[in-house]
Amino acid sequence: MNGRPTKLAIIGAGAVGTAIAYSALIRGVARSIALMDVNAAKVAAEVLDLSHGLEFVPRADVVGSDDMSVCAGADVVVMTAGAKQKPGQSRLELAEATIGLTRSILPRVLEVAPDAIYLMVTNPVDVVTRAALEVSGLPPNRVFGSGTVLDSSRLRFLIADHCGVAVQSVHAYIVGEHGDTEIALWSSATIGGVPLTQWTPLPGRPPMDFAAREAIRDEVVHAAYKIIEGKGATNYAIGLAATRIVEAVLGDEHRVMPVSTVADGFPGLEDVCLSLPTVIDRGGARNRLEVPLSDEEREGLLASAETLRRMQARFGL
């Protein structure tokens, strides 16, 4: 970074975009945070609200506008803008509208932030990321999706809660689609270095058997539905997850995270965007790790890829 002040630009000042801005401020991720949204009054109010708390966080500037120029010179751009669902509109139709919006917005952002790393957060994130790659013409390391970073965090939380350990001691990944076909990698999951499949329950705790693993996986898959039913949207955890990805980029951390991008070199996965553990640094999404998979996990991952392939085809991707 050569000591140059860093800038994070966020497209979309809705629940997710503002959660990212808020968590980025608290964590001191960037020296400047820019919010862009077509709703000028909304973005101005959000910037004012965030600015009133600058005394309590690491030094930063917060700016916002309905003009794309506010994103000029950004090091990282996070895309959270998506089409709003209309009455009677199907999820497929909503996805088509969101992809259309991405195709419209991204070229304009590229004009003012041509050297940025682009993080796609808008759902369906895997298909939106694929569209963004085609529209931008940028290499996969510079355009990738938040993928299953949040899903993996949900998985780790549930394992920790079940086993009675700190979530920071759990290492486990969700891979594949960010959606119903995602795969939990139980065969490589560990707690404090102990393989999860060999975990001996702590006193008073239930076993981590097949039934427990299935229940946890099901809860991970349906977590967003439960939250949306209760409060209308998910925002805090995805805000933290996206901020952690940005932090790994700007801090050149070489941190392994399951982000979504094209899986070149992986048989059966080459033409889709999906999540696999990937090294994140200042250059973006770098090397993917060749995680050992059980036969069942490999079959599930290929099935997840096929689901995404069919979805991409519907949108001409």
UniProtKB/TrEMBL annotation:
Q: How does it assemble?
A: Homotetramer.
Q: What organism does the UniProt record list as the source?
A: Gordonia paraffinivorans
Q: Where does substrate bind?
A: 85, 91, 123-126, 151-154, 234
Q: Which GO terms describe its molecular function?
A: L-lactate dehydrogenase (NAD+) activity
Quote a single Gene Ontology cellular component term.
Answer: cytoplasm
Q: Which family does it belong to?
A: Belongs to the LDH/MDH superfamily. LDH family.
This one is known as L-lactate dehydrogenase
Q: Where is the Lactate/malate dehydrogenase N-terminal domain?
A: 6-145
